[in-house]
Design a protein that fits this description.
By secondary structure, the chain is mostly helical. It is 75% helix and 2% strand. It has one domain (2-480). The protein has helices at 2-16, 24-51, 79-98, 107-126, 130-151, 157-186, 191-196, 201-218, 226-234, 237-247, 249-262, 264-290, 295-314, 319-351, 367-380, 387-400, 404-429, 445-463, 466-480; strands at residues 60-65, 73-77. A two-stranded antiparallel ribbon has the order 1-2.
């Protein structure tokens, strides 16, 4: 079933190649093919989720391809990778729909790029070989680089794309060196085989630091935060949705799958160091968020703050913290794309600007949008009944068991998120209607469907979190104990 998930977007891309972009009908046809392909993949992933056995710690739906000599092409999922896979297949059709009417040139390349991105992300979350993990970890960079340059809106988009590429590629070179060193130790890069070997603490420390550089850039942690807000500000809306929703989760998945699984002693040894860096990142990003004047940059900085709490949960060294980190990562994958749709889609499409001081009083003509925007703002601040609330609370409870001081400092993120989230909402939605913008229509049917599609899982899983927790508990317990 996993090979099917990988092949369907490729088949959809091949179907797009012979179609010309001469007429509006052919453009609509291409969009419908790409959207249908991504929805079919979502349907198959839901079937896979329904068939997943959460009572076992074994890797399921295993597929092996043994014709490659240089690596072991082995695919499979467990409770940890299952929901990252579902998040990928869920966000891809939303990303395609978000730019359904905005992109009018080079549509074929745009659609094929996002379908290939879906395949590469599914491969990353299902592959069971460390070398192939690195390949798929890096493979999204050229595609996103092209998307930002060709379809981005900012004047500095070339600089933003270069910063994104150079930051993430340079950090990942250290991960490649660490993988080669592990291969020289063990003679294999298979995840399950590596986890059976005892690596000395001194060797683990060096390897851990090499992997950390790659994951810290992708998270991103301070001082590697400079690329993220620029990439968000200058990329198209669909690019921002995938970048916030799934690409940032590469590092989250890598921390759990590689550092905790393969290098547990070094993870325990360096835990206080990484917790300190996460707190610095949290406070820095939160303070930077409050003063931003660009709506997309503000949401991008808030992503950095939320991912810092995810780091605290992952390195809490207990089941509550890690489960909370996964819940918060998934919640961020719903709420952050929704906020980007609000500010970079609904508002930007109507006003042509993202400068907060030019936008005011939207509730006058857009009451439905204002209500949806308010709900997502509250979710972003972590109010009860949202998945964000449970993720933050479990992460902070987990880190409290290890360091109450770090947990107390991490809890300041809740206060900060309330400040910048409500402040953004209040400045845009209320007050006298801005003289710089004309009256606008409320959300369209397409925009309403997009926002409701992201709101429903955020609230439903916030009320019924055991849907996720029951599936990941056995896998995480095996990982820890």
């Amino acid at each position: 079933m996993i090979p099917l998930l990988i092949l369907i977007p490729i088949i959809g891309s091949l179907c797009l190649i012979p179609i010309t972009e001469n007429s509006k009908d052919s453009q609509t046809k291409m969009k419908n093919i790409a959207l249908s392909t991504s929805l079919l993949n979502l349907f198959i992933s839901i079937i896979l989720w329904a068939k997943f056995d959460s009572s076992t710690n074994q890797v399921q739906f295993v597929y092996e391809y043994t014709q490659l000599n240089f690596c072991h092409f082995n695919l499979g999922i467990d409770g940890i990778s299952l929901y990252f896979l579902l998040l990928t297949t869920f966000l891809t059709p939303i990303a395609l729909l978000s730019n359904y009417k905005n992109i009018t040139e080079n549509i074929k390349t745009f659609l094929i790029s996002f379908l290939i991105l879906e395949t590469l992300q599914i491969c990353l979350f299902t592959v069971l070989d460390l070398f192939l993990f690195y390949i798929f970890f890096e493979s999204v960079l050229p595609i996103l680089f092209i998307i930002i340059i060709v379809y981005g809106s900012g004047k500095a988009r070339i600089r933003s794309a270069l910063l994104f590429f150079l930051y993430t590629f340079s950090g990942s070179l250290f991960m490649l060196l660490a993988i080669l060193q592990i291969y020289s130790y063990i003679g294999s890069t298979d995840f399950q085989l590596i986890s059976l070997y005892e690596i000395s603490l001194d060797s683990q420390k060096i390897l851990w630091l090499a992997f950390l550089l790659a994951f810290a850039v992708k998270t991103p942690l301070w001082p590697f935060t400079g690329w993220l807000y620029r990439a968000h500000a200058d990329s198209p809306l669909a690019g921002s949705i995938l970048l916030a929703g799934t690409i940032l989760k590469f590092a989250t998945y890598g921390y759990i799958r590689v550092l905790l699984n393969i290098l547990p002693d070094a993870s325990n040894y360096f835990g206080p160091l990484l917790q300190t860096i996460a707190i610095i990142t949290l406070i820095y990003a939160s303070l930077a968020t409050i003063i931003q004047g660009d709506t997309k940059v503000l949401i991008a900085y808030s992503s950095i703050a939320h991912m810092s709490i995810v780091i605290l949960g992952i390195f809490s060294n207990n089941i509550h913290g890690i489960e909370g980190a996964i819940l918060l990562a998934l919640a961020h994958g719903f709420v952050s794309p929704a906020l980007f749709i609000c500010v970079g889609g609904v508002i930007y499409d109507r006003t042509g600007t993202r400068i907060i001081s030019y936008i005011r009083g939207l509730v006058t003509y857009m009451p439905v949008f204002t209500i949806l925007f308010f709900i997502f703002t509250l979710c972003n601040a972590g109010v009860p009944l949202s998945l964000n609330f449970l993720g933050e609370q479990l992460s902070l409870i987990g880190i409290w068991n290890r360091s109450p001081i770090i947990s107390a400092l991490g809890a300041t993120g809740i206060v900060f998120s309330g400040c910048y989230s409500i402040y953004l909402y209040n400045r845009i939605s209320y007050g006298a209607y801005s003289p710089h913008i004309k009256p606008f229509k409320d959300v369209s049917r397409r925009e309403f469907i997009l926002l409701i599609s992201l709101l429903l899982p955020t609230i439903a899983l916030g009320i019924l979190p055991n849907i996720i927790l029951d599936s990941i508990h056995v896998s995480l317990s095996t990982l820890l104990f």
